[in-house]
Amino acid sequence: MTVDVVAYDTVHPGDTSDLETKLSRIDPAQIRRLALLVKTEGNSDLNDFSREYALQSARLALQRYGGIKLLDRSSFLFSTGCEGAMTPFGYLFVDTIEPAGTPLSPGSALAIGCATSRSLRPEEIGTRSHADLTAEAVRAAMEDARVGREDVALAIIKTPVASLMPTASRSVRNRRITSGFSKAVGALGAGIALGEVEPSRVVEDAFDSDHSLHARRAMVFSGAEIDRVEVLLLGNRPGAPGGLTIETGFLVDLLDAGGIRRTLAGAGCTLADGVVANPERVAAMLLKVGASANGAVRGNRTTIKSSHIDMDKHVRAAVSGIVGSILGTTKSFISANTVHQAPPGGGICACIVRKG
Amino acid sequence: MTVDVVAYDTVHPGDTSDLETKLSRIDPAQIRRLALLVKTEGNSDLNDFSREYALQSARLALQRYGGIKLLDRSSFLFSTGCEGAMTPFGYLFVDTIEPAGTPLSPGSALAIGCATSRSLRPEEIGTRSHADLTAEAVRAAMEDARVGREDVALAIIKTPVASLMPTASRSVRNRRITSGFSKAVGALGAGIALGEVEPSRVVEDAFDSDHSLHARRAMVFSGAEIDRVEVLLLGNRPGAPGGLTIETGFLVDLLDAGGIRRTLAGAGCTLADGVVANPERVAAMLLKVGASANGAVRGNRTTIKSSHIDMDKHVRAAVSGIVGSILGTTKSFISANTVHQAPPGGGICACIVRKG
Amino acid sequence: MTVDVVAYDTVHPGDTSDLETKLSRIDPAQIRRLALLVKTEGNSDLNDFSREYALQSARLALQRYGGIKLLDRSSFLFSTGCEGAMTPFGYLFVDTIEPAGTPLSPGSALAIGCATSRSLRPEEIGTRSHADLTAEAVRAAMEDARVGREDVALAIIKTPVASLMPTASRSVRNRRITSGFSKAVGALGAGIALGEVEPSRVVEDAFDSDHSLHARRAMVFSGAEIDRVEVLLLGNRPGAPGGLTIETGFLVDLLDAGGIRRTLAGAGCTLADGVVANPERVAAMLLKVGASANGAVRGNRTTIKSSHIDMDKHVRAAVSGIVGSILGTTKSFISANTVHQAPPGGGICACIVRKG
Amino acid sequence: MTVDVVAYDTVHPGDTSDLETKLSRIDPAQIRRLALLVKTEGNSDLNDFSREYALQSARLALQRYGGIKLLDRSSFLFSTGCEGAMTPFGYLFVDTIEPAGTPLSPGSALAIGCATSRSLRPEEIGTRSHADLTAEAVRAAMEDARVGREDVALAIIKTPVASLMPTASRSVRNRRITSGFSKAVGALGAGIALGEVEPSRVVEDAFDSDHSLHARRAMVFSGAEIDRVEVLLLGNRPGAPGGLTIETGFLVDLLDAGGIRRTLAGAGCTLADGVVANPERVAAMLLKVGASANGAVRGNRTTIKSSHIDMDKHVRAAVSGIVGSILGTTKSFISANTVHQAPPGGGICACIVRKG
Fold first, then answer.
1. How far apart are CA B140 and CA B39, in angstroms?
2. Disulfide check for A131: which of A189, B232, B316, C247 has CB 3.0–4.6 Å away?
3. Closest Cβ–Cβ partner in C48, C50, C56 for B56
4. Contact yes or no for B12 and C57 at CB 8 A
5. Is B4 helix (H, G, I), strand (E, B) or coil?
6. CA dist., res. A262 & res. A247, Å (int)
7. Subunits close to C (at least 3 CB pairs below 8 A)
């Protein structure tokens, strides 16, 4: 259970050549868990299929590399939207089995765990049951990673939405189960599992409404293509082998570069004049930042919620500049919409760093 | 000739209420020059009329305030595009006449000058003559500001484009006079006047083509509504009264936060952990940043030149995050496209700071 | 009270030159009512200000032409969105006073009437009271036009929406008062006044929800800039002078060219091979067509409700092709969203024709 | 060599379920040629990958159905853009081998032929050689279909463009090889082969410039993913078995419904009041329509070339309304940009009809 993380390039969403190069160095039989955390470059709108295309292409590549059985040990989180100073790319996480008898390491190191819930019935989506199934899947992923609740750094969650396909019959009830609403439910479920949200407050009236409730170590995504909750959990496991460690931090608002810098410093990076002095130690950087209720930032109005461009694109592009100028690279995994994942307008970041 | 700069808010492009409040404190008879440098919030596309609407509204407001004669002493630079962490707002520059006999100040202070060229004939647009008329107007603006070439901090230029109106007859020749091409010509003209571009190299084949040529202290905008070149020049005049000073700096690329920080430091601001410690001293911040030839940043591909969103929007949004996180505000004047105003992919910034 | 209608061109939303030419032929003192029904060409999104710009420009032009008092006798309906085969243009309606003692005409002719409600309080918007005030204004406009309920051809209604300005405080209650919801309420109010909707069924739960309810002779628009309901009513008044007549018709769905043709034939036009043979008799053509609940047309899915382009743009562009190919012109007033103005997916059209 | 055409539905670009159902009725061993002519529903912009996704999915489906060898006998033309009243769907063309000794049919019937050129070197793209290779491929496709030049109804051509991938090194020369330019060259090549364009006039200066040159029976598409010219040719072969016939016609401009109606009538359909009375006989309808140089239609300006929406989308949406209202369906293959495929602003249509 040694986890490594490597970034791979894509020339377009269907391109898996660099992924295959990176995989070719690893014996598929040694892989306990494989996860792809990928940013694709479509328009992020209802008629964007870059994510589905990338996912189909990646599955074909993994199947060629490790056979169809490897797919069962693999987890996929593809997120669309690479605005601003952002490179479309992927992180390949590989958790390999070490030889029997390998002694425990002295400190702790990055561990990953995967789990999925059972399939949700359409009428369950958006209910408390949806939140509970998310919580259960997070707990299962903790077990898979063999990390305790206090050692979890980040639960990355994908949660189903009611289909928008014109052929689907949809009750009035389900009409409200948009992508944002599904993320809200998933985040509260994760918050229950991580001990960050009081379970009794997770009632349907609070979903996407009582924004005082939020998890602190969850990034939640939604997908119309799935009918179950999928979890990729990252933490630091005491005694784990491997040279990586993960640190989680927070942004109070869209311009909070200080929150990013403190997280990097906490993970062991050196900062000088606001910039990371040893960027080669950063193996991965993940951010998710939201917009405030009216789109204002530090009291001033913006066009984040009042333009032809979706608010998430404004946020991702602005964050890409901030984190890019700190790390000196356009390769970070940046996402938006932090409903119940941070206080309104706030954000979360996690960096994986090579130990000194 | 004391220059003051104040930011004013707009609730929408046609809103002039805060501008009128700010103006109400000044006697229009004392105004030698007035300039509005404004960011409006339209979609920046061919069917965006927010700039025209804002300009019409501002002219009506100025006329109500100071009569139609004030318009002749006024200069307008309205630029569309407020993506990311950016507030639509305006800077009001007012250059007032001090009482006769006011002694010279010991140091130097911000001075502004305005000038316009004669009208260009349609067939002149995009030619060397267009560049020469720009150079002439920059020199006239220097004279108006009473600053020498070495004391110029920034020439803000608006330059005409050939109309895209379907009713206009356009020769094949003029078809290439797009907004970007017009900016290119204007920038080279400014570079001649400022001694930054060798006049003999300003030939038509070099326009928007030989990107080794560039001015260093020019920000160039284009407008289909004008038929002449308009210049608003900013500099530090020795002996000028007033408490403001301006500093110009450069960004080597889209992520060069260091370039912004050095400019702020050069103007007298204090930086701590990459952030301005005394932001109340910053009266105005102007930036213009470009994209590299293929859109890549630090060797990695981006979607800046390969998405449904125009490249300038990607750039402005990313820069808004960087400068916003340094200054702690969304109120900066951020623009894109630095053709012949910086090396490809680079940028220019200018900050106006209250003297310590 | 002789009504004339003339189309005028615009080179851009702020252009009033052709409007002024058309007005110059009329003595402003003879004008009882003036109305502008205009399509502008912005992006129709939250950051589109072409309508506000056009309105401000038209008001300035009318003021120059007929003084500020003429504005009180004038009505403005500016609608954004000119996709497909559509020309941005305006219809100028002028209702002039005939000399005393003019005898009644033998038949009936086009008449117009204008009315506005009192200002709505923010908390009234979207309530039954909003619908009742609309009904009242429609009745007042009928009186102004001196037409009975059975002679009304079309009530064109503008209705307020709750502001989206970030600075506005908005209760959760008002958050749902979107443009579409405001149109829904206005349409039901018009339906009450026109005897097409049973008043007892106009309850808040039915708004934008019980789509079996709909007016038959209303086109409803919304505007964030107004706080009252404005009505421009068109009908045929027995005995009225003037050479124009208006006919109303219906489209069962987006492809129902037959509905348009029947309306034209009903108004006295001749059709041959599906095309109007005497298009010079058509003085004005107005259409409003909607999308079905899931966007499907005749049982087949479309991208109308599942693309990056707003559904109204898909609809307007498709309708522009249909009506344009029937009339042989791109100058028709085409609008979308028929919530409570037609059965779901259906439409309404009205043509004003010169009498034979 | 009996050709059948059937439309199949897609729930999303990757959906091949209905294609597979349709294929399941056919023995793959009997298939001489198979062609898919498909409209996909992405945003049609640089970051649209719906076409690539659909193509990958269709190839996987064909491989499952008929083995990898069937792919060699298959031809793919996927075109993005389903605006307005248009359904994303595909036409499946199957050319099956009849038993030996089948006698000739008395009349003529639909025949298809496929051919591809050799690979083009990057520097050949956009040159006269590119046009000649296209002409050669069209001739080879005629041979494959066994139709003479006079019996060709339509040459559907896919032609390569210079890659826009940021990693590609591009000479200044190739910078101009956009999608539109590539179509221009392909159309002139087709025109040479079909005897519609004088070969001596096909010089590089004329490409996308001398718009008096145009083929009459070609629809040309471009693709960044190919490096050769691909041709799918449709014609009526005397003696061919099968119950289908194809008719080609022309639109003089965007609103020319008469051109569509005449084509349908020529193919044997009955029209009443401008509408097809026997739509069940129409097996396939293909259209390609362009915009005039300044976007005006019948002398009036439109926003086709001056909005945030690409001109092709305006055109497709408007045409979808026209043809949809004639055929009573949203299932037609509608495309835009007719550079050198029709006079400027004009169009071409082809309908495949079941013989009476």
1. 26
2. A189
3. C56
4. no
5. strand
6. 10
7. A, B, D
Beta strands in chain B (DSSP E): 2-9, 31-40, 74-80, 89-96, 108-116, 152-160, 218-223, 230-238, 244-251, 271-272, 275-276, 282-289, 333-336, 347-354
Give yes or no for a contact between A51 and A76, defined as CB atoms under 8 angstroms apart.
no
ipTM of this predicted structure: 0.95
Q: Can you state the angle between helices B311-327 and B257-266, rounded to 10 degrees?
A: 50
DSSP E strand stretches across D55-99: 74-80, 89-96
Cα→Cα distances A110→A95, A149, A238, A247, C295, Å:
10, 14, 9, 10, 48
A-chain CB neighbours of C43 within 8 Å are 308
Q: What is the DSSP string of A151-176?
A: GEEEEEEEEE-----TTS---HHHHT
Phi, psi of C206 (to 5 degrees): -85, -15
Give the C-alpha separation, A319 to A316, whole Å. Answer: 5
> DSSP of D148-174, one letter per residue?
-GGGEEEEEEEEE-----TTS---HHH
Residues of chain A where predicted confidence (pLDDT) is lower than 50? 164-175
Half-sphere exposure of residue D311, counting CA atoms within 13 Å on the CB side? 21
Q: Which residue of A has its CA nearest to B300?
A: A87
With beta carbons under 8 A apart, name residues in chain C contacting A307.
45-47
Smallest CA–CA distance from C40 into chain B, residue: B47
Whether B46 sits inside 8 A of D308 (CB atoms) is: yes
* Residue D12 burial (C-beta neighbours within 10 Å; 0-12, 13-18, 19+): buried
DSSP string, B96-162: EPPPTTPPPPSSEEEEEEEEE-PPPPGGGTTSHHHHHHHHHHHHHHHHHHT--GGGEEEEEEEEE--
With CA atoms as reference, the chain C residue closest to B48 would be C42
With 0-12 CB in 10 A as exposed, 13-18 as middle and 19+ as buried, what is C318? buried
State whether D42 and A53 contact (CB < 8 Å): no
pLDDT (tens digit per residue) in D169-187: 333 334 456 788 899 999 9
Q: What is the DSSP letter of D1?
A: -
| Contact criterion met (CB below 8 Å) for C113 and C143 | yes
CB-based contact D112:D166 (threshold 8 Å): no
pLDDT digits (tens, 9 = 90+) for D189-236: 999 999 999 999 999 999 999 999 999 999 999 988 789 999 999 999
Task: Give the CA count within 13 Å in the CB-facing half-sphere of D321.
Answer: 35
Q: Which residues of D fall within a CB distance of 8 Å from C43?
A: 307-308
Q: What is the pLDDT along chain B (356 residues), one digit of tens a residue?
A: 899 999 999 999 999 999 999 999 999 999 999 999 999 999 999 999 999 999 999 999 999 999 999 999 999 999 999 999 999 999 999 999 988 888 888 899 999 999 999 999 988 999 999 999 999 999 999 999 999 999 999 999 999 987 543 333 333 334 456 888 899 999 999 999 999 999 999 999 999 999 999 999 999 999 887 899 999 999 999 999 999 999 999 999 999 999 999 999 999 999 999 999 999 999 999 999 999 999 999 999 999 999 999 999 999 999 999 999 999 999 999 999 999 999 999 999 999 999 98
Give chain A's length: 356
Mean pLDDT taken over chain D: 94
Phi and psi, residue C355, nearest 5°:
-65, 145
Residue that has been written with the tokens 């901090």 in this structure: B153
Residues of B with a Cβ under 8 Å from any D Cβ are 43, 45-48, 164, 166-167, 294-296, 301-303, 305-308
* Contact (CB<8Å) D307/B43: no
H or E element in which residue B311 lies: helix B311-327
| A87: its two tokens | 């490179």
Q: Going edge to edge, which strands form the sheet with C31-40? A: C2-9, C89-96, C31-40, C74-80
pLDDT tier at C176 (50, 70, 90 boundaries)? low
